[in-house]
Amino acid sequence: MEVPEQEFAQNSTHAVWAWIGERLNLDFATAPRGRRSVPGIAALGIVVLLIAVFAVVTSSRRDGSGPTIAVGRNPIAIAITPDGTTAYVVNMNSNTVTPVRLATGGIGTAIPVNGLAVSDGARDIAIAPDGATAYVGDEATGTLIPISLASGMAGTPIAIAGGAGPIAITPDGATAYVVTGDSTVVPVSLASHTPGKPIPISADAASIAIAPDGATAYVTSFTHSWTDTGWRDRGGKVTPITLATGAIGKPIPVGGAPGEIAITPDGSTAYVVNSDGNTVIPISLANDTSGTPIPDPDDPTAIAIAPDGTTAYVANADGNGPDGTVTPINLATGTPVRPIPVGGAPEDIAITPNGTAVYVVNFNDDTVTMIRLKR
Predict the structure, then answer these.
(1) Residue 195 belongs to a domain with what CATH number?
(2) Same domain, 11 and 155
(3) Are residues 288 and 257 in the same domain?
């Protein structure tokens, strides 16, 4: 299980104090002043030395948050190449994609995606399994934009009826499935860059994920309704789509306003963030039923699951504060761990393929935060 280094350092500190007390037979909390034993007093020097050494070893591991990397204006999405060398960040209001070299934190030349001077269209990015091409969903131009990662050049946009939003690519790299503003999902052949017949979803579609076996896509959606206190998000659900036929399965109710969805590497469970209920909802994919919601009170916006399937990392907008957080969740127990501070309004999150780091895009700060993980 990956553990944030902040938690690792805290647990390690307790372990060291327990080891010292056990070895030296000391009880610093209860021994009366002036009554400590001579061996205990002599041992204080050893204690101080051990603390100093331990501080040096763990000083860089106290906080899970690592470097902050400046990117373009209003970063909204991130994807990491299959070899784990580079992250690509979509900047919504500068209409660019910024490459970030993960080994150094350095950034490459920003890649223009739609040629518009001002727009808020670029919304999502996915990278093909072979690592050769990234695809950016752009709502302003209604296109899916391929980017050659070798050259850093955008190719001919692919027109998507209803606009291009969230994207998922099949494990074999043959097809991208694009969520549109018309509440449909459009399959796109990545060999010919040809869109297929739209698959209708009965509510506002928000996110999509494809099972590891490539057989089924899962789409989150919800409806809006007007009340005396304003718009309310209701009827949240997850809709399975059989990709071989395009057939829609029975929707799985999750309530509220479901957002991003992520699936465990073994394909057994999906996890959905629900900002309306401040929860993360597990779904058993064996029987398409939702489980007990996991509380996350900090306004969850995005989710990613570690490669070993033990931990989910949830980005939280934290509507009550200027900065966001990331909450690790132990998936074996459904237990959230202490949130890790990041930047303002985190919108998306990605984990390196080797599970050593999490990267979070901070919309309000124009930055990416790296979180080191203890494996």
Answers:
(1) 2.130.10.10
(2) no
(3) yes
Return the pLDDT at 26. Answer: 45
Confidence (pLDDT) at 218: 98
- Ranges under pLDDT 70 in the chain: 1-65, 114-120, 224-234, 319-321, 375
DSSP 59: G
Q: Using the CB atoms, write b or e for 158-167: b if 16+ within 10 Å.
A: bebebbbbbb
* C-beta atoms surrounding 102 within 10 Å: 19
DSSP 142-172: TEEEEEETTTTEE---EE-TT----EEE-TT
Instruction: Give the DSSP letter of residue 347.
Output: E
Contact 258, 270 (CB under 8 A): no
Number of domains in the chain: 2
Q: Which residue from 155, 215, 209, 163 is spatially nearest to 186, judged by alpha carbons?
A: 163
Q: Report CA 185 to chain centroid distance, whole Å.
A: 22
Give CA–CA dist 220/212, Å, rounded: 17
pLDDT at 65: 67
Residue 109 carries which DSSP code?
Answer: -
Q: Are residues 75 and 42 in the same domain?
A: no
Specify the DSSP element, H or E, that contains 38.
helix 38-58
C-alpha neighbours within 13 Å on the C-beta side of residue 208: 32
Three-class secondary structure of residue 260 per DSSP: strand
Structure tokens at 351: 């984990």
Three-state DSSP string of 73-101: CCEEEEEECCCCCEEEEEECCCCEEEEEE
Whether 196 and 52 map to the same domain: the answer is no
Q: How many angstroms separate the CA atoms of 45 and 349, rounded?
A: 45
Last residue of a domain, one of 32, 61, 90: 61
271-295 b/e with 16+ CB inside 10 Å = b? bbbbbbbbbbbbbebeebebeebbe
Give the orientation angle of helix 5-24 with respect to helix 38-58, to 10 degrees: 160
What pLDDT, on a 0 to 100 scale, did the predictor assign at position 364?
Answer: 93
Cα 199 → chain centroid: 26
What is the maximum alpha-carbon separation in the chain? Answer: 83
